[in-house]
Each structure stands twice: as C-alpha cells, then as structure tokens.
Amino acid sequence: MSPDTQSTTIPRHVRHGSNAGQPVSRRDGVLKVTGAATYAADNHPEGMLHAVIVPSTIARGRVRSLDVSAAKAHPGIVEVITPENRIPLHFDPNDKMPPFGFRVEVLQDDSVRYVNQPIAVVVAETLEAATEGARLLAPRYEEELPRTDLDNGERYDAEAVGVGAPAVTTAGDIDAGFAAATRVTEAEYYTPPQYHNAMEPHAVVAEWNGDHLTLDMPNQALRMSAASYAQYFGIPVENVLIRSPFLGGGFGSKAILNGPQILGILAARQVGRPVKLVLTRAQMYGPVGHRGRTWQKLRLGTDAEGKLTALHHTSIGATSSFDDFVEPAANTSLMLYASPAIRADHKGLRLDIGTPGPMRAPGEASGSAALEVAIDEAAQACGMDPLAFRLANYAETEPTSGRPYSSKALRECYEQGAASFGWSNRPLEPGTMRDENGFLVGWGMGTAVFPCPQFPAEARATLRADGTALVETGGVDMGQGAWTALAQLAAEALGLDLDQVEFHSGRSDLPDGGVAGGSGHTASAGQALSNAGSDVIAQLSEIAVNDPDSPLFGAGNIGVVAGEGRLYRRDDETRSETYAEILARAGRAELVGSGKSGRDPASADRFAMNSHGAVFAEVKVDPALMQVKVTRLVGAFAAGRVINPKLVRSQYYGGMIWGISFALQEEALADRRTGRIMNADLAEYHVPVNADVPEMEAILVPEVDPHVSPLGIKGVGEIGVTGTVGAIANAVWHATGIRVRKYPIRLEDLLARR
Ligand code: MOS
Q: In 3D, which of 559, 465, 533 has the Cα closest to residue 567?
C-alpha cells in the first residue's frame, strides 16, 4: 500500500503506523499455555455452594413428579429448586427482552418443551452431593410424542429471521427472470443441527451482596448481559458486575442469555450463598442454543452466456415450539451474485427442540453451503468453469439495491486464490483426476462473504506520568486475539510501543466494549480505543503547543505528530519532547481520553459493506471406501485493514477448519421417538482434529476502505467458514461425479450412489 492510501485509515496524528499491522503474538498466549489464565469455573468464593441442573429427558410434556424429599434427605444437599418453590423473577422469562432477548426456561412451570430443559436445580455443599441429589429426584413425566422433523413439525410464516432480518426479500421480477432463462437449475439442500461445542462449558459463579451481584461467567456481550440480568432480578444495572477475562470458545452461544446461567444466579439469591453452576457437555445440547437445521431450495435461471436471469433461494429453518430464531440462510443470496431478479424467503418449522441461535456465521454458513453448490451446479449445466461462471455473474454493485460497495476486492481474491491453488489446471469434467495412490482427486471452490458491522462501543485511555498508558474497554477476548489487536490499535493512536500500553477488558464495569460477535469486535471496540488514544494525544498536544517552555510551543496550525512516546512538530521533527516531560511541566499526573466506535451515517446509507473471499479446496476420495479427505485449502480474503496479520490468518484458518467440520463432520442426531440427541459428546459429535486438517493457506488480499469506518477495518472472524463448505462439497463432486446435497457429506452417501 502506498503511504497515501494508508493515510485514510491511520489516525492523522500518528507519525508512522508502527504498531498496528504487525504480526505480534498473542498477549494472552503465555497465560493460556501455562494454565495461568483463569476461566469462570476456576473461581471459588468463600462459602460457595455447587448447583447442578436437572435436565429433562423427554422433549414434550409435563413433569408429573419429582422426589424432592429423597433428594433433600441426601447429605450435603442445601436446597432443591423447582417451579413450586423458586423465588420470583422481576422479568417474565416467557417474554423477550429487547434488543436480542430470547425466551428462557427457568422453572416457570412444569411444562417440558425440549430435551435437556432444566426442570430443577439442586444446590449442595459439594458437586458430588448436588449430582447425587439430582439423580434422586427421579422425575416422572406425562410424555407426548415429540415433533422432531420436517414431516411432523409445524410450519409457519416467519416474521423475521436471525436477529431481526427480513424473512422475505424480492428484488426485480422473479417470474420474468425465469421466463427469460434459457436454462433453469434447481436443487434442494439440507443442513443438520450443529452445536457450538466450545471447549469451555457454560458456567457461572454468582455471588450476591445484598442487591449487588458479581458474576464470573464466559460472556460475549458483557454490558448487554449485565443490563438483562439486572432486569431479571429487579436491580439497577450498576449493581451487576460481570467478569469474563478469558473465554474458552463462544461461537455465538455465549452472546445470548440462557436459562441455566439465570438459574445459577437465582440459586445463589435463593440460598443466600455464592453458587457455582457448570453445565456438563451433554447438558449443552438444548438450553444454550445451536445452529438450527435448514431445508433449502435454490432455483437459478441462466441465459445462453451463463449470466443469471433469476435467483430464488428459499429456506425452511427449524426453531423451537416457543421462540422464533430461524436461520437466515436464504439471505446469503442477496449478497453475492448479480441477477436482475432475486428472491430470498424463509419459513419456520416448530419442533420440540431448544431454541436455535447464532452460531459461527449464522445465515451465511448454512446459506452459502447451499448457494455455492447451486452456483457450481449452474456452472456445470452451462458447461462453464465455476470461476468463470462466478466472474460472469460478479456483482459490481449490491445485487438487490444497486448501491456501490464501500470496497470489494473479491475479484482480487478470486485471482490470487486461483493462482496459488493452480485452479487453471482444473479439468472441467468430474472424476478425471487420480493421485499416485489411485485416489480420486477433486477441486472445488466457493465464494466467501460476511457483513462488517460496526457496533456501539466505548473505550478509555489514560496516559500516565511516566509516559505509559492504560487503555480499557469492556469487551471480551474469546480466543480471536482481541487483547492483542485492540492493544495494537490503542498503541498506534497513542504513539506508543505496544509494551508501553496496558490493556484491560473483560469486565462489565469498564466502558462498554460492545459485543464480541458478528465478526465486529476489532472494528468496533478497536475504533473506540483508537479514538480514545487520539483524544489523549489531542489533549496532550493542546498542553504542549500552549506552553512557552515546550519546543512545540506555537505549533498550533501546523500541528504535531505522535510517535515513540514523543510529540514532534509536523514541519520540523528535530523539535520534540516526551509525553512524560509535557505532563511533568504541566503538573499533570495523568490525562484521560475517551472514544466511541462509529461509522459515518451517510456512508452507512450510501454503501453496501461486506468482507469477501474465495476458497479453493482439494479433496481425495478413496475409490473403494469413498472416504473423503480434504488435502488442500486455499482461501484468499479481503476484509479491509489488517491489524495483526498473524492473528487474522489464524482467524481464517479457524473459519476454514469449521468449514471442513460443516462439510464433512458435524451433525447432532436426534432419536425420533424421544427427541434425545444420541451423540451429545465430543467422542461422537465430530469436529476436526489435527489429522483432519490439511495444508492450508490464507491469503490476505489488501483492501483499503475509507467508508466502513475511520480505521477501515471490516471483520475476519466468521467469513472463513462461508465459501469453504461449498468449496469442499464441490470438490467432492469434482472427484466423484456425485452430488451430495445433504450435510455432512458421508461416505455412505457416496457409496450408495457410486
Ligand atoms: Mo457470533 S455467531 O456473532 O458469536
């Protein structure tokens, strides 16, 4: 990048951008690999009790009886909480709390709406006693046949999908589009229920002190959660302190309030002592969200040149019997390809399951898993190379609105990814490549896309007398590297070295860092931190240029620049002094600055904004067993300014690995008779291990975006999973000639059609 283009995204007062942009290693790395990082469940306040959830074992019906007296008679049991005796809540859990609240199950009645719904909580002196007490409750049920699938679920018209996205969008005349097509391809795709399966289970350690509540819990949205807990318990928000210094995987499941964590807090209130409640792995299959199943259908009309004339994407998304989160899968088709007519619509399907929620690119992951295969199928029908087909349908402007993109280096992603992968050597016909061992070889590709939100976020920067700084924002590092990238942005704006900046986050009493989700934390909290640092430097400059004893005196209109802990005259860098000198002469112990995130509202209206990428996959398939192995993955991504290439690359790798997982491994299987998940553990719910992960390359395609935010950062967390799933599925087809339109692609699906 030339210095000119860089100047659009580095704060103007920065002498040279020395911190952000560097591949710095994680600041939390040593703490994590040495075990010094403490997670929520590592806390044991004085007098703490253990609570365990009693999960329902039926999917639909009522709890007829619980043997509370047997449980209470067990040594060490302090309390058994059931709908009969649970203390009241201040907010009705059957209501949805704005802005993102879900209905939660917190023992409000005896109904059972899914397997693993909490039906009681046992509190005891030890975890062992609580666990035994839970067993002694021996629940009896009135059981109804559960609705578990497309054939017995209740279909309904979704009013909205995801978190407030439109359920139906039409642009152009879809019928005219299909009428104009010389060819129509149509197919149905299925994506299974998937569970977040973070390494760290949901946990809470709750301690009440009168009407003050302290919570140790993994949480992706500290301030929003604190406000919600305050409402559930009828206390002022200032009384709630959430601490979440480390988080062992979130994937969306720790962004939204859930019943078990509220019950842990409630238990502590009810017994008057601190309480720890940790879910088991199996208990996480139900009350803490999942990626809902989808049944998608895609119809693509194309003309003689292989240009789309119409694109219709429709999706049925499973949700619970009592809430409304429907996977916004079809909306992915609004984001990617130029077509004179596009329609995306959704229906909901009520099943007796826990409510799904956001998980690793909600909408885009499932949607692109179908769309990118449909595009491959349309290219095949047109006799075109899949990359040529995508380029023929490249959206120069947003497909549904015609708005220009704030930036879009997708073409460069295609070019660089294809070049590195060697795509131009790909034979058009499937089933024609073999390796030296006789394995079938296939190459496939997919386009990656994800929005780049800018969430409300605030930050504070304090310059200290010694010239070092403390910077604070109440966000969360959930493994993505926020501690490091955010500190780099603060250091850049402060004109300090990274090791002169102390970074604090992970507490709800810090300035609101917003949500660590939607791939928007670095862009949002980072902007706030950068602005806070800039505010400090502006104040410091003001002091220096008005101080006759400063070498910077009178630099007013010309201004000063900051770097290496010094302010310099912009026109004469031989005239400078240290921050410490300026503060000392002014008699200031510290300078405090504040900043907020923000996108120019005019830009937000004028431009469409996304991160983009292209993923190329190679698979090898054993022709005897039809076992599939991903052997190469190349992803090229453009996501605006890159703050830390090392961490960004890790984010892309992580996303692409989740793509392998989606394409070939993950699926929760429910027993149709009971609704129970049969593989609710990490032995049988498959996620990739090292042996499943191939050689990967993530190419960071440069992209300067002056509109998305002052810093020009988009977002990298979730985009890697999109595109990858379809790329792998398309590679499987290219290896075998078999289209499996149901995820995960299993060897039996291939064997059956060989
Ligand atoms: Mo994510 S699904 O925005 O945590």
A: 559
Which tokens go with 378? 């349309």
Q: Among this protein's residues, is 154 annotated catalytic?
A: no
**Mean pLDDT score across all residues of the chain:** 96
Question: Which phi and psi (to 5°) does residue 538 adopt?
Answer: -65, -45
**Is residue 580 a contact partner of residue 465, using CB atoms and an 8 Å limit?**
yes
DSSP tag of 691: G
Q: Cβ neighbours of residue 453 under 8 Å, at least 6 residues apart?
A: 518, 519, 520, 523, 524, 715
Domain range 3-38+455-598, CATH architecture? 2-Layer Sandwich (3.30)
Name the residue among 356, 584, 384, 554 with its Cα closest to residue 466: 584
CA–CA separation, 317 and 27 (whole Å): 40
CB-ligand 1 contact for 256 (6 Å cutoff)? no
Peptide bond into 744 cis (omega under 30): yes
Match 């826990």 to its residue by tokens. 354
Query: What is the biggest distance separating any 2 CA atoms in the chain, rounded to whole angstroms?
Result: 85
* Partners of 53 in the β-ladder: 121
Test site for ligand 1: of 202, 360, 478, most ligand atoms within 8 A of the Cβ? 360
pLDDT tens digits for 700-752? Answer: 999 999 999 999 999 999 999 999 999 999 999 999 999 999 999 999 999 99
Residues 502-529 have pLDDT tens digits of: 999 999 999 999 999 999 999 999 999 9
* pLDDT at residue 2, as a whole number: 36
SS3 call for 281: coil
* Pairwise CA distance, residues 184 & 513, whole Å: 48
pTM of the entire structure?
0.97
Q: Which of 420, 421, 292 is nearest to 360 (CA)?
A: 292
Among protein residues, the one whose CA lies closest to atom 4 of ligand 1:
252
Q: Which residues of 248-284 are buried (b: 16+ CB within 10 A; e: fewer)?
A: bebbbbbbbbbbbbbbbbbbbbbbebbbbbbbeeebb
Q: At what angle do helices 724-736 and 364-381 cross, to 10 degrees?
A: 40
Distances (CA, A) of 34 to 37, 43, 414: 8, 18, 40
Other CB atoms within a 10 A radius of the CB of residue 147 amount to 20
Find, among 433, 423, 461, the residue nearest to 636 by Cα.
423
Report the pLDDT averaged over residues 480-508. Answer: 96
- Read off the pLDDT of each residue in 1-13 and give the average, rounded to a whole number: 56
- The catalytic residue among 364, 581, 718, 748 is 718
360 lines ligand 1 (CB under 6 A): yes
Kind of pairing between the strands at 433-434 and 440-451: antiparallel
H or E segment and range at residue 110? none
Question: What are the structural domain ranges in the chain?
Answer: 3-38+455-598, 147-402, 404-453+600-754
Residue type, 546: N
Nearest Cα residue to 296 out of 347, 357, 341, 360: 347
194 CA distance to ligand 1 centroid (A)?
Answer: 14
- Radius of gyration of the chain from its Cα atoms, rounded to whole angstroms: 27
Å from CA of 294 to ligand 1 middle: 18
Q: Is the CB of 357 under 6 A from ligand 1?
A: no
- Cα–Cα distance measured from residue 194 to residue 358, given in angstroms and rounded to the nearest whole number: 11
Please state, in angstroms and rounded to a whole number, the distance separating the CA atoms of residues 251 and 266.
26
Residue in 100, 251, 658, 716 to alter for ligand 1 test, most ligand atoms within 8 A of Cβ: 251
Architecture of the domain delimited by 404-453+600-754: 2-Layer Sandwich (3.30)
Domain 147-402 falls under CATH 3.30.70.120: no
- Identify the bridge partners of residue 63 per DSSP, sorted by sequence position: 141
